[in-house]
Prior knowledge:
The chain is mainly α. Helix content is 66%, strand content 0%. Helix 1 packs antiparallel against helix 2.
Amino acid sequence: MLTIVYFLQALTASDLNIVMYVCQNVDPENVFSQSPCPLSQPVLLSLIQQLSVDLTMDTELKQK
């Protein structure tokens, strides 16, 4: 549940550094292995958009 809050706050800030911080500190398997995914479609789309801003930096983390 807190993971959802962290992602929402990071994405609302529209700051890639904050989004990356959350991604570094959250296990993606814990989030994305749940069915249904706890992140709503708009949150997922926003996450994808922000992570795709610069794919040359932190590429491995962004592809998790």
